[in-house]
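Weekly sync, protein design subgroup
Attendees: M.S., D.O., the rotation student, P.L. (late)

Item 1: inverse folding check
M.S. brought a backbone from last month's batch and wanted to see whether the design step gives back something sensible before we order anything. D.O. pointed out we never logged the input encoding, so this time it goes straight into the notes. Structure tokens as presented (475 positions):
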């Protein structure tokens, strides 16, 4: 060891990691034990160290895929080359701290929360001073909890922090480590909101379109408000789902780049924002939209939450739930515009969206098969299920065409269309589109949500326009 240079002490949460291990373990516990939420409350009542210890014992954090801060890792590498002593000092539980240290293999000593002592703030400062003396070590931290440690450190290092926190650091020897990813960019926030998924909310307008009332301006205003309310609700759920699914997302070839999985947005940011979005959604619905729409929105939220916590891990139930979530947007449109929901539209929607939900699951399994992984993390499927999923999906899609054909001969159809026989032309177009989608899925060429694919792919859009023209001619 180079005794001329003071030891370098590294914090974990928010510094070495772009995450917080207490929040990580808490969310993972909620995901796997949603019916035992009383336990964390009981543990917390016994003290924060007890809570941290039990959460660490009852969860399985995948250290390898955690979002490490590359800037800090590079700094540690440089210090190691200088033969400096490297210490990990964290308020996280000893069990997790040892796992992090073992994975990186660069630390000479580990200090962590244990024996009912929460190693944070002044307690961390005291422990470090006892070992290395005041001004006897350098320290890298990131939050106000590190203020007492920075004060007694020889040199204070920090990942990018707020100006107000900088002013509170009573150490003139302060250096901010550069980090381009420390401040959330608007693009990152939009990605967390999954604004592109708002395209699905166009389904709200389907009942209005089917009833030929699309050019009613007052109805359109309701539609715009409903679109926004559903968007806020969906974004709230997407954020919560991403928080609960961190472990699985980090093992996924593309989902690992999502804002929370990659650490570009903090878990605390997500926990603060998702209830605000949910409140805005229901507030808009309560103040300006019909009561039935508010009820459908509530059902959508409960089903989505159930999907995130439980349903998505169970085969068959998950795709049925996804199909219902798509269909609920159509039901919401019916409630929004006070239009009686047609049996044909409901049946058509359920089977079409079931086919698309199976496309979504097929695509995930296909990508896993390419990477020679047998099982999709956090799902009940494995790659051997690809053939049956394909059969179920194409069958559901073709049933959709059958429903459309039967609809043409319904008595109510004749009241809406002067030339309903022209709708027959839509059947081969829909058959073509369903076959096209599933062939692309077999080739691994659908890499997005299938509904988003349907409204962005040029061939899909062209077929959609042709189907719309067929219905227009039939009016």
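Designed sequence read out in the meeting:
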């Amino acid at each position: 060891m180079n005794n001329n240079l003071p030891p370098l002490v590294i914090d974990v949460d928010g510094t070495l990691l772009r995450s917080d291990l207490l929040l990580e373990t808490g969310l993972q516990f909620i995901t796997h034990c949603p019916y035992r939420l009383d336990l964390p409350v009981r543990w917390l009542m016994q003290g924060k160290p007890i809570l941290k210890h039990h959460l660490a014992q009852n969860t399985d954090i995948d250290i390898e895929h955690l979002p490490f801060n590359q800037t800090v890792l590079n700094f540690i590498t440089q210090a190691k080359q200088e033969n400096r002593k490297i210490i990990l000092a964290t308020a996280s539980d000893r069990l997790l701290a040892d796992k992090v240290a073992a994975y990186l293999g660069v630390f000479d000593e580990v200090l962590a929360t244990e024996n009912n002592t929460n190693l944070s703030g002044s307690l961390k400062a005291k422990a470090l001073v006892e070992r290395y003396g005041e001004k006897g070590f350098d320290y890298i931290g990131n939050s106000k909890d590190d203020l007492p440690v920075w004060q007694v450190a020889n040199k204070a290092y920090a990942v990018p922090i707020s100006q107000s926190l900088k002013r509170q650091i009573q150490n003139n020897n302060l250096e901010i480590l550069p980090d381009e990813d420390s401040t959330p960019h608007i693009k990152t926030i939009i990605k967390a909101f999954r604004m592109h998924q708002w395209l699905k909310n166009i389904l709200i307008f389907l009942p209005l379109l089917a009833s030929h009332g699309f050019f009613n301006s007052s109805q359109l205003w309701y539609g715009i408000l409903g679109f926004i309310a559903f968007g806020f609700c969906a974004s709230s759920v997407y954020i919560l789902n991403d928080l609960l699914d961190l472990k699985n997302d980090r093992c996924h070839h593309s989902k690992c780049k999502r804002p929370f999985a990659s650490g570009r947005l903090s878990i605390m940011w997500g926990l603060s924002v998702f209830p605000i979005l949910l409140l805005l959604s229901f507030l808009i619905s309560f103040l300006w939209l019909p009561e039935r729409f508010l009820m459908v929105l509530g059902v959508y939220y409960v089903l989505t939450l159930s999907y995130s916590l439980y349903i998505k891990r169970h085969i068959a139930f998950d795709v049925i739930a996804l199909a219902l979530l798509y269909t609920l947007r159509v039901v919401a449109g019916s409630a929004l515009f006070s239009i009686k929901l047609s049996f044909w539209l409901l049946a058509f929607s359920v089977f079409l969206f079931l086919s698309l939900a199976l496309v979504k699951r097929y695509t995930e399994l296909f990508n896993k098969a390419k990477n020679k992984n047998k099982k999709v993390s956090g799902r009940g499927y494995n790659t051997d299920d690809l053939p049956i999923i394909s059969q179920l999906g194409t069958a559901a899609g073709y049933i959709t065409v059958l429903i459309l054909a039967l609809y043409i001969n319904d008595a109510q159809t004749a009241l809406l269309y002067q030339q309903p026989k022209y709708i027959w032309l839509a059947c081969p177009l829909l058959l073509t589109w369903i076959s096209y989608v599933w062939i692309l899925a077999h080739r691994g060429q659908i890499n997005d949500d299938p509904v988003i694919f349907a409204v962005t792919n040029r061939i899909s859009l062209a077929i959609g326009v042709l189907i719309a023209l067929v219905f227009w001619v039939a009016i």
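Discussion: The radius of gyration is 27 Å. Strands lie at 8-10, 86-93, 109-113, 138-141, 155-158, 174-176.
Action: P.L. to compare against the previous round before Friday.
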